[in-house]
Amino acid sequence: MRVNLRWRQSSAALLVLLAAAVPGHAADCERPARLRYSMVPEGDVKSDLARFRPLLDRLQATLGMPVEVVTPASYGTVIEGLLAGAVDLARLGPSSYLAARKADPAITPFATFSQPAGAFQSAGPFYQSLLIVRADGPLKQPASLRGVSLALVDPDSTSGNKVPRYFYSQVTGMSLESWFGRVSYAGTHTGAATAVIDGRAAAAFVSSFQLSTMINEGKLLPQELRVLWRSAPLPMDPFVYRGTLCPDITDKIRAVFLGRHGLTEAPVLDGMNAIRFLPIQDSDYRVLDGLR
User: Fold this and answer.
1) Distance between terminal CA atoms of the chain?
2) Rounded to two decimals, what is the model's pTM?
3) 120 near 222, Cβ under 8 Å?
């Protein structure tokens, strides 16, 4: 009986070791039946997702599993999707990444992108928060903005909310609500910029990258807007995955984005107004530690 007991104990221990060695074992990592991709709604969500589809198709072929798109309702729903395991792969803004990473340190940034110079944007893997007004209007100095209506983007937007609240408030010595008059959220950078052009808001904080993209797409002319304030350079949007995914899955995700020297799927890069994908890690976002 004593020998039999020892054999059972040894067998049980061996089974535990074997189970831990099996790829995709629940105690080790996650191997979903399908990969779900989403992105924070910075511009025209439907068009942005459609332009990204060729890369997702290649990812699907590489992984050998379906890749589905989860259409976002807001920045917050993408964060919640990652935290709940309903989204596996996502493009976040820097601030929404910080929020997601704070809630789940396993969320892993792995790629960003560089973009060409634009009307309001320098070339490179960074952008700025811009305070814009109509160029043909009377607002020509930051001091003239006291009490005027302001359009922000989304509570979780970096350049369209978080950075202005932290850094521009240091310029005025007051909160945005105290310095400006009516403050509202437009939902996207496109919506905030359009609110200024249409006269529904006197000023707006938007991304220099998104503003340049709108100009490239013919949605507005650079001479229609005046920039009254720029933030320091901010790191570009990170692509992230849930850190609990199995390593062979995350390795393939990285390879699809960063292979070919980041020059994957030229139509996708053109649609993003980007030059190439670049590797990135959490430490690249420490410049935004004040927003964590």
Assistant:
1) 60
2) 0.79
3) yes
User: Cα angle at 291 between 287 and 292, to 5 degrees?
Assistant: 95
We find that the CATH architecture of domain 126-234 is 3-Layer(aba) Sandwich (3.40)
Check if CATH label 3.40.190.10 holds for domain 27-115+236-291.
yes
Q: What is the pLDDT of residues 124-162, one digit of tens each?
A: 999 999 999 999 999 999 999 999 999 999 998 999 999
Name the amino acid, one letter, at 238. Answer: P
> How many Å apart are CA 268 and CA 54, to the nearest integer?
7
In the structure encoding, which two tokens stand for residue 125, read together? 């893997």
Please give the Cα distance from 265 to 268 (Å, whole number).
5
Enumerate the domain spans of the chain.
Answer: 27-115+236-291, 126-234
pLDDT of 250-282, one tens digit each?
999 999 999 887 777 788 888 888 899 999 999
Q: Give the single-character DSSP code of 231.
A: P
